[in-house]
């Protein structure tokens, strides 16, 4: 009857509606019998219209309560027999004091004394971190956002250790991200996202340990540097590519010059080696020719010597040959119209022949193989000497006058 009267009052009077929608009414926080759902429904009312955000920080602050309001689970009502879903933990208070945490499955509660105060999800939750501004170590303002993954590991601490665990960890993630970016330069921030994510996760876990929450991972989605910084980065990339192209071109030219120089060097070395081999071969050929000529000369002299010593009249024949060559030499000198100095009297032909025979006589006496005296060798050559004198007399008339 009391509930029907309350509904009738709500339908008839607007003042009663205003009274029920006040957040300080005990009926809105402490359900009594079957009136609890109705009072909560009336007290909830339509969502208030919020003013448009002035900047990103205000928009982030306005979005967080809306997200919490949309994602907050409805607190179950004590109907004595309750079934707790899997991966959820229900915190029960008895007469306003913590009593126990209900595990998944069947649960029996005392009416009017037990109250389900908090419902904690033990699943992994993904929270979107809105865009915010941060200043790097080299004083560059960045705008970045991310996604935070966390899980409730202690339902008691998550319920009584912090007022709103999700909101608190979002704020902690934002402040930690600003602090970590402030310790890194722009290039390091852009190049080492994994290191930045790891540092943020470690910092959040260290601070959220008393809240019964564990941060599993944090991922930075987008990083937006200022437009001027982006243009400078593009210019730097273009300059770096031009530098690399010039370096590669110079390296190619340098390698080409080295290859040409190496080719010339090898050609010079090969040419000098060819000249050296040619000269060595010519020297070897000349040496072999000299040796062959000397061997032939020695062999001829040896045979002449053997013929002279073994045959009768050999020495006389040699004497005649020497005299003939001596006379022929003077005859050849007389053919040319030149003035020569001779070591003998050209008019005394017999003296020249005697001198030539004396030279041979001295050589023959110095040879140990001679066994006959010189006078005996010359006796058989008188006829040859007379003929030689006649030849010299005929050539005397052709000599030029001095």
Automatic annotation (TrEMBL):
Q: Which GO terms describe its cellular component?
A: mitochondrion; plasma membrane; side of membrane
Q: Which UniProt keywords apply?
A: Mitochondrion
Q: Which residues form the Band domain?
A: 79-237
Which residue ranges are recorded for the region named Disordered? 30-58, 366-402
The family assignment reads:
Belongs to the band 7/mec-2 family.
SMART domains linked to this entry: PHB
Question: What PANTHER family does this protein's entry cite?
Answer: STOMATIN-LIKE PROTEIN 2, MITOCHONDRIAL
User: Primary place of residence?
Assistant: mitochondrion
- State where the protein is found: Mitochondrion
From which source organism is this entry?
A: Dimargaris verticillata
Regions of compositional bias (Polar residues) in chain numbering: 366-383, 393-402
Q: Name one GO biological process term.
A: mitochondrion organization
**Entry protein name:** Stomatin
């Amino acid at each position: 009857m009391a509930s029907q009267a309350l509904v009738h009052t709500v339908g008839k009077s607007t003042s009663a509606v205003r009274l029920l929608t006040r957040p300080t009414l005990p009926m809105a926080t402490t359900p009594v019998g079957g009136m609890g759902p109705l009072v909560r429904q009336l007290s909830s009312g339509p969502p208030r219209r919020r003013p448009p955000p002035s900047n990103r920080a205000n928009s982030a602050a306005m979005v967080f309560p809306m997200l919490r309001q949309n994602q907050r689970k409805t607190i179950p009502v004590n109907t004595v027999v309750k079934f707790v879903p899997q991966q959820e933990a229900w915190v029960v208070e008895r007469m306003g004091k913590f009593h126990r945490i209900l595990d998944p499955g069947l649960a029996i509660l005392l009416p009017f004394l037990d109250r389900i105060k908090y419902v904690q999800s033990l699943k992994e939750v993904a929270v979107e971190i809105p865009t915010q501004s941060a200043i790097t170590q080299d004083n560059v303002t960045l705008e970045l956002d991310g996604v935070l993954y966390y899980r409730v590991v202690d339902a008691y601490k998550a319920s009584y250790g912090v007022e709103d665990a999700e909101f608190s960890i979002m704020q902690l993630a934002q402040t930690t991200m600003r602090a970590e970016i402030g310790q890194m330069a722009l290039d390091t921030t852009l190049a080492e996202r994994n290191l930045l994510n790891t540092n943020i996760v470690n910092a959040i876990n260290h601070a959220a340990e008393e809240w019964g929450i564990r941060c599993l991972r944090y991922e930075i989605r987008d990083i937006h540097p200022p437009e001027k910084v982006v243009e400078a980065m593009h210019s730097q990339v273009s300059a770096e590519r031009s530098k690399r192209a010039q370096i590669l071109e110079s390296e190619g030219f340098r390698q080409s010059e080295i290859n040409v120089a190496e080719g010339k060097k090898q050609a010079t070395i090969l040419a000098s080696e060819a000249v050296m081999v040619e000269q060595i071969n010519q020297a070897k050929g000349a040496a072999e020719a000299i040796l062959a000529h000397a061997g032939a000369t020695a062999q001829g002299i040896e045979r002449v010597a053997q013929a002279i010593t073994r045959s009768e009249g050999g020495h006389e024949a040699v004497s005649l040959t020497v005299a003939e060559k001596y006379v022929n030499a003077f005859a050849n000198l007389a053919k040319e119209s030149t003035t020569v100095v001779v070591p003998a009297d050209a008019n005394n032909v017999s003296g020249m022949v005697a001198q030539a025979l004396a030279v041979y006589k001295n050589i023959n006496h110095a040879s140990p193989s001679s066994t006959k005296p010189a006078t005996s060798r010359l006796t058989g050559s008188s006829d040859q000497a007379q003929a030689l004198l006649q030849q010299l007399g005929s050539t005397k008339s052709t000599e030029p006058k001095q």
